[in-house]
Amino acid sequence: MSDALESLVFSLVPQARQDEHLKRQLIAHCEEILSSNIGQTAEKDIGHLADLIKRHLLQTTPSGSSTLRFTNLLSRLLDQPVLSRKHASLQFLYTLASTPTSAPAASFLPALAPPPPTRPSSKATTPIDSQSPNRNQRGKSKADLLREYRLRLGQPHIPEHLILRDTLYLLQGISGKYVQFSVTKDADQNKELVFTEDPMSSASHADEGGRENSAAEDRTREEETGLTLKRLDVWIEDWRLRMRMMSVCVEGARDAHGGALVNLIHGYAENGDPFIRKFTNQLLEEVSKPFFATLHKWLFSGELYDPFSEFFVAVDPELAHLQYMQPSLQGVGQLASDGGFGGGEVEDTSEEHAGGLQLWEQKYRFQKDMLPAFVGETFGRKIFSTGKSLNFIRYSCHDSDWVATRERLSNTGGTLKYSDIVGLERSIDTAYQIASQRLFDVFFDKYKLLDHLLALKHYLLLGYGDFADQLMETLGPSLSKPANALYRHNLTATLESALRSSNAQNDPPDVLRRLDARMLEYSHGEIGWDVFTLEYKVDAPIDTVLDPTAMMKYLKLFNHLWKVKRVASTLRAGWMRIAGGAKTFLRVPELDYDWHQIRLVMAEMIHFIRQIEAYCHLEVMECSWQDLHHFIQKKEGDLDALIENHRAYLDRMVKKVLLLSPKAGREENLLNQVRDVFTMILNFREATDDLYNYCLTESARRDAEKDAARGVYTRIETAEDRRYTAESLPGILSRVREYGAAFSERVQTIVQALASHPDLDCRFLGIRLSFSDFYKTRKEQQLRA
For the chain, which has fewer Cβ within 10 Å, the N-terminal or C-terminal residue? Predict the structure, then answer.
């Protein structure tokens, strides 16, 4: 290495052969340059360098032969394992080839350049006059043009060290002696550089000896400092590019802030230029620090500190001052001093109950346009959910283990920064899983959400059969009265009696205290069956899942299932009465055929109502519950996923149990027809009761006639005897036949509608209602008749 440097120094500076001190100084300076990092700021990319060389070869030899030859040689070079600095070798050769032939050899070693030419006089021959014809043909450099311009104005040439000194001042924003900033500004509000007159230009120029002394001083200063304009240009090249990049970013970010600003800068990180990528990454590392500070506070403590609205999570200003609704002061589940069975008017707290879900869903908003691209929407949603969950645990659930949870979250994250995207994603996943798991534990362990869901299924959806039968049996006589004759304390007392006389008494006391009986708003002429309903009271924080809308759906399902239960109970009691009074019917033999037809129609009604019950409870409610229970057991997702699954569970039951249609304006057509069938069944039962009472009266009358023929009077005529006379029989039979025929026709219409229903389960219900094509055959017989 030393021999090569020595020969290079001798070839460039011949006087170093006689001056041993100068030779050692130049060799030491060369070794310093070789050991420095000059020119190594960019990444070594042989492919990019090869493209530059090919482009240069195509400019010199358009035929392309040199390019093909270079490609062949490059492949052979890359296969050589001996050479270790292949990129440096190619860079050296490319720089040599790119250097103009007239340029001095100091292009690569600025400190070894020969001394600059002495300052010429106004009448001296300039280098521009001694240019070769080839030089004139190829054009002039900017230095030559400047020299020629100043000679044309009669101004002497400014030595390089003076311009270098001015350049150092200009880089600091200070005007130099010869080059200064203009007083005026251009259209872009930037100051231009202008050359000023040399204050000594009007004086006589120094003699030739003075110029030689000045040139000698210039060479001595250059050798001592080693700084030239070219070297300075090389040193500030990186900073010039950095300033240019910063200018582009500033111009593009005039109306952007926060996450949008980070997104704009991140767009330059995908550039193929290694320098631009590195600069953008360094800039993002600094610009994203406020973002990551806000992210850390939101991700690990659930607190949003964003005074300048730069984060992708925003708070609703109308809800910012509100907190989640506090639980009852009497403890979780204790709703009132009377245990939930008190009489009197109940205060409407629907607005309070709406607070939990409203704050959860609307207090914080996800702003996709402010989300940095390096985070991604999937992880952004996880961050949003994690912060909301922690905020909910802190302010709504009052979790006593919050401190331990927060410590675990902080330990998983470490320091969040742009340069560690993999660590950021890992921290987000871990924080999301821990927060979601903790929130599930709070809901299902501390607040017993699963017990409340089961209670709603057992009581409002009549899952407890013995409780429903007991309640129906004890409330039946009261509900047959007008609605204005019912009192709430009687209803709650009957409810409590039904609970104690069924297996429901084994449920937790907290669940039983929440169950209540009340009446809906009623109008004139309605009876208790029309206005009675059960109610299940919930408070914070479980009202976030069991929100008022969900409770209204439970109420709608209860009202429908209660009607089904009433019709089934009515048919069961009517069938037992008919079967038990068979001996009574034999005493009116002319009505045997009518009773046979009644039994056929009643069997058809029992089949219909049993299929409806089995469909609602087994195929809809149980299957929907299994899906919800499976999700709860997995404990995957966050509170939003739990709310969404519970809504899907309720929506599926409402849609299938009520036989709703997706057609707009015709959603409840089938439901209304089914309820009309319920009314027909109740009317039919009332007509058969009248016929039964007539048979009893007629049988007693005939027995009294037989006794009177024997001279024994055993019966006194009552008001009921006068009501059920032979004249009333045709009307009773007409009603029985009318309701029976109307029932068959309406069920036939329902079966046809179910056959074309878009829901598969509803179509299967239609098949079960007419499993042997009973109604299809009957319709064909009616058409033939």
Answer: C
